[in-house]
Design brief:
By secondary structure, the protein is an alpha+beta fold. It contains three helices and ten strands, in the order H-E-E-E-E-E-E-E-E-E-H-E-H.
């Protein structure tokens, strides 16, 4: 019986070590930079679009169940610095009011990258699905691949992906 129990315990430990441990969201708080954003509605991420955001800082508070976004967005040709807050929901997503109602979720995170998706329903009831890759350092091929997989999984066409690193002004 002890051998069976120890074998089972060893199997569980080995399986747990194979999974990539993601840090808690609070550990991810800090300065981030937008690398890529994709959208089911290209107009939302075109120049002067409301979701063509250049992320500056994300602050997650696990105890309070909040997230704070600090970013730059161009509006009518002028840069504006924005601060938007979200509240964690029971399903782990965040409800955020920005250009309508949003459901934001971190899909994958490490200490250097954050892959997220957001569903926006604007004031006209139009639904837009967005994915984003945010980085603290240069992007590795594996990180870019995770972003592309999520984007494809969410049904966003490849031509609707904007590389923010190459278009930063």
């Amino acid at each position: 019986m002890k051998v069976l129990f120890l074998s089972l315990l060893l199997g569980v430990i080995c399986a747990a070590q194979e999974e990539e441990a993601q840090p808690s969201l609070s550990e991810l708080s800090g300065q981030w930079r937008t690398a890529y954003i994709a959208s089911s509605n290209l107009g939302k991420i075109k120049p002067n679009g409301p979701f063509r955001v250049y992320l500056h800082k994300l602050l997650f508070d696990d105890e309070q169940g909040t997230v704070d976004f600090y970013f730059f967005v161009k509006h009518k040709g002028k840069w504006e610095y924005k601060h938007v807050s979200g509240i964690k929901q029971e399903d782990g997503t965040y409800a955020v009011d920005y250009e309508g109602k949003n459901v934001f979720e971190v899909s994958y995170a490490s200490n250097d990258i954050l892959v997220a998706h957001n569903t926006n329903v604007d004031e006209h009831g139009k639904k837009t699905v967005l994915t984003g890759l945010f980085v603290k350092v240069n992007i590795e091929d594996e990180s870019l691949q995770k972003f592309k997989e999520l984007t494809q999984e969410k049904g966003i066409e490849e031509e609707n992906v904007v590389n923010f690193i190459e278009t930063d002004d």
